[in-house]
């Protein structure tokens, strides 16, 4: 099994690449060029030269605030990677973040990161510097240096002035701000030692030799896109091939064509990326496609669905895709990235369990005539100890019991930036029997025969009549009802006050354009409620039908159910029709939905309140 070299820091890894293969492409970025994609290549020698030049300039500009991290605000480009590496070359802590190039949610998030991190400098492209400098001044951050890198004004002699930084293994290499699927983003402190340990873990999971070609469309500021698909190939003296998420979403076949054109050996995506290719790549687009180079395709960042794996394999097996290339995995920013991965070279493992027992936090074989749930194994933990713990009693649970996933190992990050109490609570947890030093993930799962099965998130669990319902199961069931319901476009959550006995389940579901008519909206809502009652014994759910694009997601594709709940309560959803239970209606009445011009009369008038369920319902 091939393992990544034992480098101590990313700087050491790239410098080793320069020494052994200076002209090899370290980075390839695919830019949209008409209907095609134009590659921009950067060799190891050029990447190193640019990083050294940025490091010298960064040191000069931040000599008085060396302890303050550096915020990187770039569009998806190779310049982002050179700036990120430049921070390592300068011995500065980097913060990858999306460019706030539009008002609203993204700008608010980056503004929150800037304040939380107390950044000392911002690096960006020359064309964005003026706007970002004005934004910093307006935000009261005039002391933050705003530096443009990657332009024609760079001093070519600066690289020769570079000296290697002195860093300790425990120094914070970068801050990975969580995607915020269930809460406000927090800065995870990833040390140089954490990064090195997780690169080893990824190497074991992917089992690909040095010189690997890895390619993806994931955002460069997201942990899977950055650590797995960009830094890992650099660690292995390989090549990272990238395209923007927008390029992929517009034309999913571009990802597969990238694999074909560059003979990509390793790739990664959330489950929805594979599902999108299965559904939208046409026979014409896949003609002549060869995926036989693909050794491992990681599936992670959201629940892995067995149906997705089977459908993707069936669709592209004729194009050289091997079933064993699909590798379900589990990871999170708080553990740098990877926790576990299925065994490369074997088809993904599945476990069929009794649905009712799963709702009671147990994995049991299905009984005849009972509903079955299929769980996908995320493999064995890599260099990490995994415990399944009752989140209330803090007692360790045996195999086959569902509880919170706790971790302990060298990849577990140092904590959250400037949040001492939350760090102690999350990263230094102790079991009821006194075992200490565990990371509480907030994720729910179970161990079975040494395999990890991830079932959901604690904060998103629906507690109904003593049963634990998983929102993703309800969302998928609704979306499989018919063509009107958009796949991947749903969010299920609870509203109300459980202490006062006023709670309800709300289903928000996007409808596909031209697949419904206004007069049929009430019937669609009734069909959703009937399905949930029949399949999940969940009576009296509220249903909100919305326009495409209403469901908010993180950069990794996770549904932001907590945010969707907030949008529902604030009346900010583009409602086409809603049928609300009394508990939800009382809350919604405080902030009635605002109709959009396109929604028209349906959004304004198609709303009903469902009477309370009686004994016979």
TrEMBL record:
GO molecular function, one term: ligase activity
Bias (Low complexity): 597-607
Protein's UniProt keywords contain Cytoplasm: no
All residue ranges annotated as the AMP-dependent synthetase/ligase domain in the record: 18-417
Keywords assigned: Ligase
InterPro entries on file: AMP-bd_C_sf (IPR045851), AMP-binding_CS (IPR020845), AMP-dep_synth/lig_dom (IPR000873), ANL_N_sf (IPR042099), FAAL/FAAC (IPR040097)
Span list, region Disordered: 591-617
UniProt similarity note: Belongs to the ATP-dependent AMP-binding enzyme family.
Protein name: Fatty acyl-AMP ligase
Species of provenance: Streptomyces chengmaiensis
């Amino acid at each position: 099994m091939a393992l990544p070299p034992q480098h101590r820091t990313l700087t050491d890894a790239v410098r080793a690449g320069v020494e052994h293969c200076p002209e090899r492409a370290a980075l390839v970025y695919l830019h949209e060029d008409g209907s095609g994609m134009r590659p921009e290549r950067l060799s190891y020698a050029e990447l190193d030269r640019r990083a050294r030049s940025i490091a010298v300039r960064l040191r000069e500009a931040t000599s008085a605030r060396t302890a303050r991290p550096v915020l990187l605000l770039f569009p998806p480009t190779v310049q982002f990677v050179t700036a990120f590496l430049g921070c390592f070359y300068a011995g500065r802590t980097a913060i990858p973040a999306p460019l706030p190039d539009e008002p609203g949610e993204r700008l608010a998030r980056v503004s929150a990161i800037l304040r939380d991190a107390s950044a000392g400098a911002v690096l960006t492209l020359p064309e964005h510097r003026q706007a970002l400098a004005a934004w910093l001044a307006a935000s009261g951050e005039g002391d933050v240096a705003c530096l443009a890198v990657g332009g024609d004004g760079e001093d070519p002699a600066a690289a020769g002035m570079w000296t290697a930084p002195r860093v300790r293994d425990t120094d914070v290499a970068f801050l990975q701000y969580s995607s915020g699927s269930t809460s406000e983003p927090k800065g995870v402190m990833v040390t140089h030692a954490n990064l090195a340990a997780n690169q080893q873990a990824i190497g074991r999971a992917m089992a690909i030799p040095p010189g690997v070609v890895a390619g993806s469309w994931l955002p460069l500021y997201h942990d899977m896109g950055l650590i797995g698909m960009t830094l890992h190939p650099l660690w292995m003296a390989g090549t990272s091939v990238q395209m923007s998420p927008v390029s992929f979403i517009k034309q999913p076949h571009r990802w597969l064509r990238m694999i074909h054109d560059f003979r990509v050996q390793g790739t990664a995506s959330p489950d929805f990326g594979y599902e999108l290719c299965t559904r939208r790549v046409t026979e014409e687009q896949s003609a002549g496609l060869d995926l036989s180079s693909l050794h491992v395709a990681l599936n992670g960042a959201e629940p892995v669905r067995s149906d997705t794996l089977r459908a993707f394999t069936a669709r592209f097996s004729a194009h050289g895709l091997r079933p064993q290339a699909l590798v379900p995995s589990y990871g999170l920013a708080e553990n740098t990235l990877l926790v576990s991965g299925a065994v490369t070279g074997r088809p993904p493992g599945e476990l069929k369990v009794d649905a009712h027992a799963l709702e009671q936090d147990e994995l049991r074989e299905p009984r005849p005539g009972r509903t079955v749930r299929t769980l996908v194994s995320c493999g064995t933990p890599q260099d990490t100890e995994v415990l399944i713990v009752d989140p209330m009693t803090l007692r360790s649970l045996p195999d086959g019991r569902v509880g919170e996933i706790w971790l302990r190992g060298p990849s577990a990050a140092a904590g959250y930036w400037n949040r001492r109490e939350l760090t102690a609570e999350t990263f230094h947890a102790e079991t009821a029997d006194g075992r200490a030093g565990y990371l509480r993930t907030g994720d729910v799962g179970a161990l079975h025969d040494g395999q990890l099965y991830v079932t959901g998130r604690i904060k998103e669990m629906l507690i109904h009549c003593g049963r634990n319902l998983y929102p993703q199961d309800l969302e998928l069931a609704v979306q499989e009802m018919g063509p009107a319901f958009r796949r991947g476009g749903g969010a299920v959550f609870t509203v109300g006050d459980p202490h006062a006995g006023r709670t309800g389940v709300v289903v928000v579901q996007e409808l596909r354009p031209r697949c419904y008519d206004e007069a049929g909206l009430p019937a669609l809502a009734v069909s959703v409620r009937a399905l949930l009652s029949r399949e999940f014994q969940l009576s009296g759910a509220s249903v909100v039908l919305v326009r495409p694009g209403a469901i908010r997601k993180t950069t990794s594709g996770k549904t932001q159910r907590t945010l969707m709940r907030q949008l529902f309560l604030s009346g900010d959803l583009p409602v086409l029709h809603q049928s609300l239970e009394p508990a939800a209606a009382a809350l919604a009445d405080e902030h009635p939905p605002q109709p959009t011009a396109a929604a028209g009369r349906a959004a304004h008038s198609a709303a009903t309140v469902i009477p309370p369920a009686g004994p016979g319902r």
